[in-house]
Design goal:
The protein is mostly helical and 147 residues long. The chain is built from 6 helices and no strands. The chain folds into 2 domains: 83 residues; 63 residues. α2 packs antiparallel against α3. The model has no long low-confidence stretch (mean pLDDT 89).
Length: 147
């Protein structure tokens, strides 16, 4: 399951999150200094990179410290909760609902953007919906063969 590969207690994932956060934050700060103030959308993009990098760094450091210095009792309890069949089913069901809601929201957004004559963003979101559908179908076929 993905939570074992990318879980909060996985040190490699946490270090990768820290490194990605530092890189994104440094890039955002550097990019905001070399871009002139008149190019507002690029300044906003630099701010987005800085904010995303800061969030990645904060989460990575928090989870790394928690996994390194947390009590063994709590680690074991989290592992039991993560592997509990009921919690696994609840997580899968919640992810299914979230994926359906994301596709529905994207479809509504496509219609709204097309009505506002923003064709390019509408087509990009449509491509994302098609990519999500392709990932679903591929995952379904792979899991069907495994199970």
């Amino acid at each position: 399951m993905l939570c074992k590969m990318f879980g909060k207690d996985n040190r490699i994932f946490n270090l990768t999150l820290i490194i990605a956060g530092v890189v994104a934050m440094v890039f955002g700060l550097w990019y905001s200094h070399i871009i002139s103030e008149e190019v507002h959308h690029l300044q906003m993009l630099a701010g987005m990179f800085t904010g995303m990098g800061s969030a990645f760094l904060a989460f990575g450091v928090f989870f790394f410290l928690r996994s390194r210095f947390g009590s063994a009792e709590k680690k074991k309890q989290r592992e039991i909760e993560r592997n509990d069949e009921r919690n696994v089913q609840i997580t899968r069901y919640a992810m299914s609902i979230a994926a359906f809601a994301a596709v529905l929201f994207s479809a509504i957004l496509i219609f709204v953007l097309t009505a506002l004559d923003y064709i390019l963003p509408s087509m990009l979101i449509l491509a994302g919906v098609y990519a999500e559908l392709a990932v679903f179908l591929i995952a379904y076929k792979v899991l069907e063969k495994k199970m």
